[in-house]
Every structure is written in structure tokens, then in C-alpha cells.
Design goal:
The chain is an alpha+beta fold. It has 3 helices and 5 strands; from the N terminus they run αβββββαα. The longest helix is centred in the C-terminal third of the chain and has 19 residues.
């Protein structure tokens, strides 16, 4: 049994770690996927990336369904097409309590593998497209605050610091 995973909070260095392509679609990988899904649901999040739990696999899990009963796993994901842009209000399990509007592609097509190594292509828009882009940023070492202007990012980090000071006391 693998050690339990936990969601890492900013500024943990693992959130910026580079990830590597998955080449072995084995039981250990599938076990990590299941642990990540459990953590995601427990946190009431719609997505969770490997870097957020200290893993360096190039993978993330999402579930944007209203009932949170349609989990998906994206391994070695690559956006092959995108169009349109839209501002989305984003939060992040690694930045509890922090939200910001981020400009993202409104519609994307992503190629990836599932946890069994089956190659897939999916077109997504709206919340699904936003979530996939947010989690793909994570596996590339990019955080949603990095998509903000320098001033907005500084303001958000100060707000996050203040939120953490209050909850740590």
C-alpha cells in the first residue's frame, strides 16, 4: 500500500517541480490516481494535479460533473487545439480561500492517456476546459497566480498570507 497523499499548500516547492512523462501504466499508478480522486472529492475540488500531492507524474484528475460522479484521469496531456478566450474565476486546493479571474481558452481539444494507457482525445469547453487548463498548468509547474498581472499577483499573495496568518493562529 502506497503512503497516503495529502494536498500541499503554497509555497511548497513541489508545486513548482517539473513532471515526467508516464511510461508505466501499472497498479502503483492507478493506486495514486484513486488516492488523488479521493483527496479531490474530500476537498470538494473539481481537479487535482500530481504536483499538488508531491508526485512528479505528468497527470491530473478532474470531475466537473454536477454530482461529482464522473471522474476523469489525464496522463501525459497535451492541448492540441484551442479557440476563444474567457475570464474564469478560479480557486485552487493549494491556495485555500484564494480566488482570482484568469483568462483561459474557452474551448480546447486535449490528447491524453487514461490510467490504463488508452490514448484519448477530448474536446472541452466552459468549466471543463478551464479545469483542464488549470491542472495542466500545475503539471508544468505553473500556478494560477502566475497568470495574473504582477500587481494582481502581489495583491493575491498578500491576501493569501493574511488568510493563512488568521487560520494558523
Amino acid at each position: 500500500m502506497a503512503a497516503p497523499l495529502k494536498i500541499l499548500q503554497y509555497p511548497h516547492k513541489a508545486l513548482r517541480e517539473p513532471t515526467h512523462q508516464v511510461t508505466d501504466f501499472n497498479d502503483a499508478l492507478r493506486q495514486h490516481v484513486q488516492q488523488m480522486l479521493s483527496l479531490m472529492y474530500e476537498d470538494q475540488a473539481v481537479g487535482l494535479a500530481s504536483t499538488q500531492v508531491g508526485l512528479t507524474y505528468r497527470l491530473f484528475v478532474v470531475d466537473v460533473s454536477p454530482q461529482q460522479n464522473q471522474p476523469e484521469c489525464f496522463i501525459n496531456p497535451e492541448i492540441i487545439e484551442s479557440c476563444g478566450t474567457k475570464l474564469y474565476e478560479e480557486g485552487c486546493a493549494s491556495f485555500p480561500g484564494l480566488y482570482a479571474k484568469v483568462l483561459r481558452a474557452d474551448t480546447i481539444t486535449v490528447q491524453y492517456y487514461d490510467e490504463f494507457g488508452e490514448k484519448k482525445t477530448q474536446k472541452a469547453n466552459g468549466l471543463a476546459a478551464n479545469c483542464i487548463q488549470h491542472e495542466l498548468d500545475h503539471v508544468n509547474g505553473i500556478l494560477f497566480i502566475d497568470r495574473l498581472s504582477k500587481l494582481k499577483k502581489m495583491m493575491m499573495l498578500k491576501k493569501y498570507e493574511k488568510l493563512n496568518r488568521v487560520t494558523d493562529e
